[in-house]
Amino acid sequence: MSDAFGTIIFEKEGSVAHLALNRPDRLNAYSVAMRDDFAEALHAVAEDEEIGALLITGKGRAFCAGADLSEFGSAPSQAIARNARWQRDVWGQLIGLDKPIVVAVHGYCIGSGVEILLLGDLRIAASDTVFAMPEVQLGMIPAAGGSQTLPANVGPAIALDLLYTGRRFGAAEALAYGMVSRVVEPESLASMAGDIANQLSELPRRFTSGLKRAWSEGFEMPLDAGLALETRMAAGAIG
User: Fold this and answer.
1) Is 187 marked active-site?
2) C-alpha gyration radius of the chain
3) Catalytic residue among 47, 50, 71, 135
4) Tens-of-pLDDT digits for all 239 residues of the chain?
5) pTM score, two decimals?
6) What distance in Å separates the CA atoms of residue 49 and residue 9, rounded to the nearest whole number?
7) N or C end of the chain: which has fewer CB within 10 A?
8) How far out from the chain centre does Cα 145 lie?
9) What's the CATH fold of domain 2-201?
10) Which of 11, 49, 71, 115 is catalytic?
């Protein structure tokens, strides 16, 4: 299955789909080609009823070092380059996937890497991970959800600090901010992430998809509406 893609490795291991960013010579910088491969793989995950969970990782020394800025030089303007980059709605696919998403990061998790991470459900970081959102410092605004998902996870004060300054920070700080739920030693990252993805994939789909919908849709609702949605999801899962 992985032979179909040039920038990712995509494998189905039992009921887990494993998508690994695979441009190690570029620290898995997110390119237009990677966007297209990512979109195709996510479509396959959504359509395959045998898949119960998705695991996203990165090959080499980094999870993702951000957008491939070398591609900007071949476009007439930065605006045209960014429009081309986001013509396929990978971020919407991640948001709309009704299966648990486990994201395991290491090395560098910068820009687009952070945005992919924050669209995951369970997020694990190796203790050596370096995070940053440098877009504003590079003369851009985050265009893959970072301006929304970062404040939703860490709160507006910390989010604006990170977005305006673009400063780098480590895994312990990311854990304290709520960007990740677990920090492990680098040598334990793959096994822990794989074990969690396997556990989630074995849960009944009606429960995992119902919980994900109750959380994602109810998050912004008033409490009474969110509780009503939870009740409907729970009744539907039992039925």
Assistant:
1) no
2) 18
3) 135
4) 556 789 999 999 999 999 999 999 999 999 989 999 999 999 999 999 999 999 999 999 999 998 887 765 444 444 444 554 445 588 889 988 999 999 999 999 999 899 999 999 999 999 999 999 887 676 666 666 666 778 888 888 998 898 889 899 999 999 999 999 999 999 999 999 999 999 999 988 877 777 777 666 645 655 555 455 445 655 555 55
5) 0.84
6) 20
7) C
8) 10
9) 2-enoyl-CoA Hydratase; Chain A, domain 1 (3.90.226)
10) 115
